[in-house]
Write a structure and sequence with these properties.
Structural class: alpha+beta
Largest sheet: 5 strands, antiparallel
Order of helices and strands: HEEHEEHEHEEE
Oligomer: single chain
Low-confidence stretches: 140-160
CATH class of the largest domain: Alpha Beta
Number of strands: 8
Shape: elongated
CATH topology of the largest domain: Alpha-Beta Plaits
Mean pLDDT: 75
Strand content: 25-35%
CATH architecture of the largest domain: 2-Layer Sandwich
CATH superfamily of the largest domain: Peptidase S8 propeptide/proteinase inhibitor I9
Helix content: 10-25%
Length: 160
């Protein structure tokens, strides 16, 4: 169980209509996904999303039912959903005077980018993310596992 759930300090982005919370449930690797899903459905737990390849189900439950949910033997970890991503690339700020970078004019700066390496390393899946929209990217990975949990061995790199 995540620290926020254990301490009952629920993040506001996970609260829904004041009395409900949206959670990510992770199952033990040897649990069949369909069996876990059926057991949750039998308990009338609202399933709002699934990630079968990662043994995860996103649910919405009343806050008062968290401890009951945590007692299920097939659940390995419970955490609140992640907040919505915020756009980080403010085009108006980052493109200021870009016409002078690598300019053919005599007073312009001449930058080729040679000798400069840029890398973003992450342990998660890079999917349709707003910060990568319109960018040329080349993905490199050191293994074939698809995982976005920092405590699991997985590493993704993005070279721009």
């Amino acid at each position: 169980m995540s620290e926020a759930i254990a301490k009952k300090t629920y993040p506001s982005h996970a609260i829904f209509k004041k009395k409900n919370i949206r959670l990510i449930l992770t199952f033990f690797p040897d649990i069949e996904f369909i069996a876990a899903q059926k057991e949750l459905e039998l308990d009338k737990i609202a399933i709002i999303g699934t990630q079968k390849e990662d043994n995860m189900i996103i649910v919405q439950i009343p806050i008062c039912n968290i401890s009951k949910l945590a007692k299920k033997s097939f659940i390995q970890f419970i955490e609140p959903i992640s907040p919505e991503p915020e756009k980080e690339n403010y085009t108006g700020t980052t493109l200021i005077k870009m016409n002078q970078v690598h300019s053919d004019k005599s007073d312009g700066s001449v930058y080729s980018g040679r000798g400069i390496n840029i890398m973003l390393q992450d342990d998660g899946i890079i999917g349709p993310h707003i910060d990568y929209t319109g960018r040329n990217t080349h993905f490199v990975t050191n293994n074939l596992r698809r995982s976005w949990r920092p405590w699991q061995e997985s590493s993704w790199a993005l070279a721009i």
